[in-house]
Amino acid sequence: SASPLLYMGLARKVGGLGLYGFWDNTLYAELSFYRTTRQGVFSPLSAGVPTDTVVDGYAPYWHVMYNREMHPHNFAVGAHGMTTDVLRVAADAGSGTDRYRDLSLDAQYQYLGDDHIITADATWTREKREWNASFPAGTASNPSGLLRAVKMNVHYWYQRRVGGGIGRFTTWGNSDMLKYGMSDEAKAMGNATGSPDTRGWTVELNYLPLKDVQTLKLGLRYTRYDKFNGAKSDYNGFGRDAADNNTTFLYAWLLF
User: Fold this and answer.
1) In 96-113, which positions are buried (b, 16+ CB within 10 angstroms) versus exposed (e)?
2) Residue of 47, 129, 130, 52 lying closest to 92 (CA atoms)
């Protein structure tokens, strides 16, 4: 799904170190510090990753979780968050920084039976955006804004070989024409409304062709958008509808 949450978009762009502990298979806690990964021949993990988002200094991340196992049932609830200062212009350390404060709550249930496996999970994320550099520079319409996202998924497996799931995702927040607005006929990500609101569904089918060997998985995933960048129809100002972004994805997952 399309989501402008910074919290969900830092993968492979940052690296860091942290400590974690899991006590009595019940309480989990983690504290880590991340920074933008260095580029160059001696940084292969960041090769090919665009540096359009640069963290100023270190971004602290924390995670706490309570886990309860009652075989064959498992329950888990937790919270995690991050505070990040990001350069307004990635290549200019003097451009000032905007601050992002993320807080997420999540819950998960899992049933592990001999023939049946059921999992359900939900995540709620709130991101407070303080445009400390963007607003004075005229690249944000408001001095601050809020962004929220909810994701829910339910999956089922039969005899650990055939399965499927359905998911719901939604993102919504304050409109900002300078941050989100972009009307371009050639760009599917165009936004003529200035709104980040996006919502839709995912449906997935899975199959493990090798019995008792879970190293190969075949999957078919369909994503349907009810709203995209603030509108159901003509969201980019050139006649593109949210449904035009619906996708069908066939994949093979191999584990060595």
Assistant:
1) bbbbbebebebbbebeee
2) 52
Number of helices followed by number of strands (H, E) in the chain: 1, 11
Per-residue model confidence (pLDDT) at position 8:
54
Q: Determine the Cα–Cα distance for residues 136 and 130; give it in Å rounded to an integer.
A: 11
- Of 34-48, 77-91, 144-158, 215-229, the range with the lowest mean pLDDT is 34-48
Closest to 83 measured CA to CA, from 132, 150, 25: 132
Q: Alpha-carbon distance 44 to 219, whole Å?
A: 29
Q: Are strands 59-70 and 216-227 parallel, antiparallel or unpaired?
A: unpaired
Query: Could you tell me the pLDDT band of residue 42, with boundaries at 50, 70 and 90?
Result: very low
The structure tokens 């910074």 sit at 6
pTM: 0.85
Q: What Å distances lie between residue 38 and 18, 41, 89, CA to CA?
A: 18, 10, 17
Least Cα distance to 47 among 89, 86, 7, 15 occurs for: 15
Average pLDDT value for residue range 45-57: 67
Taking a C-beta distance cutoff of 8 angstroms, is the pair 193, 230 a contact? Answer: yes
Phi, psi of 180 (to 5 degrees): -105, -25
